[in-house]
Amino acid sequence: MGDTTQRALEVHADRAETATAWWTTGQGHGEFRSEQVRPAAPGEVSVRTLWTGISRGTESLVARGAVPDSEHERMRAPFQDGDFPFPVKYGYLNVGVVEDGPLPLRGRTVFALVPHQSGYVAPEGAVVPVPEGVPARRAVLAGAVETAVNVLWDAAPAIGDRVLIVGAGMIGCAVARLASGIPGVEVTVVDIDPEKRSVVEALGARFAGAAAPPGDADVVIEASGSGAGLQLALRCAPTDGEVLVASWYGAEAVSLELGADFHSRRLRIRSSQVGAVATTRRGRRSTRDRLTLALGLLQDPAFDVLLGATASWRQLPDVTAGLADGTAAELCQTIDWSRP
User: Fold this and answer.
1) In this structure, is residue 110 part of a structural domain?
2) b/e 76-100 (16+ beta carbons within 10 angstroms → b)
3) Last residue of some domain: 251, 271, 291?
4) Whether residue 26 is found in the same domain as residue 118
5) 8 and 128, same structural domain?
6) Distance between CA atoms of 74 and 57, rounded to whole angstroms?
7) CATH classification at residue 227
8) What is the mean pLDDT of residues 225-254?
């Protein structure tokens, strides 16, 4: 443990003047840094962090230093410090309590797109109140549910559609839960891991193994994060249909076999990305509207099955190592900042 990390650990309890922040400094490793936290100015809030969440897909790329050079600017988180690949303070699933700021927000639990750190000061508009009935820990799922909202705005399933989702990770499962609430919609999630069945079924969807996917889908969404998953999605797409790609592959090359019936069935591949509101809503909905909607949807307790293990903030070195080497859990790991 370096001197900087040790000093950060020693001052973590002194929240009024300093905060402890986690910086990724190399492939699979990082350090705690002590950062000065100034008092909140008018129009700002001072927040003490309760929980942060690990966005496994994106944060694995960050931990490996695998964010493509072309995406270094587009991939910046709103309150990121440092630059890709390293050193960088990254993360965007932060739930905390407002300790100072405008009176209506004081004492409120809020969500913000802030990295892994024990506290922060930000503009009032950067935080979104967590609705009553949404536990603080569940609220870290707001990022996944917001992405799922955007995916469904892009995919636009209709009443009675058969929706096929390839990949039972965080995003695929969040999409499945929301889509299952559309009247008459049948949702099937395909994954190579049979142990995902219980999670998928708890979310109100059907599970199918990758060897035997259903062949009658109206809407196909790929959220596996793998080229093999995208190839499977193309095989399952209806003639004259499309595959909506929710995955982001980072710097990894993805090979596809397009020489069979891809052309004869007139298939299309289209991307969905949470960085901007879906085009069908962009003129009427802001990103804050979308995030507020996602937090409201988290009043559904079924989303608790997507919460994985909890780790103390002190375990972030191990968590980052697991993200880099591929051993991190696929469900949303939560980081507890409530104890010094």
Assistant:
1) yes
2) bbebbbeebbbbbbbbbbbbbbbbe
3) 271
4) yes
5) yes
6) 16
7) 3.40.50.720
8) 93
Residue 315 lies in a domain: yes
Q: What is the pLDDT of residue 269?
A: 97
Contact 335, 93 (CB under 8 A): no
Confidence of residue 338 (pLDDT cuts 50, 70, 90): very high
Mean pLDDT of the chain: 94
pTM score of the predicted model: 0.92
Domain of residue 156: give its range: 144-271
128 shares its domain with 153: no
> Of 271, 290, 312, which residue sits at a domain end?
271
User: Do 179 and 219 have their domain in common?
Assistant: yes
pLDDT range class, residue 248, cuts 50, 70, 90: confident
50 inside domain: yes
Q: Tell how far CA 165 is from the center of its chain.
A: 17
If asked whether residues 168 and 78 sit together in one domain, one would say no
Write out the two tokens for 48.
């003490």
Maximal C-alpha separation, the chain: 65
Residues 132-165 have pLDDT tens digits of 999 999 999 999 999 999 999 999 999 999 999 9
Total of domains in the chain: 2
14 domain residue, yes or no: yes
Please write the tens of the pLDDT for every residue from 259-284.
889 999 999 999 999 999 999 999 99
263 and 309 housed in the same domain: no
- Six-digit token string for 248: 């982001």
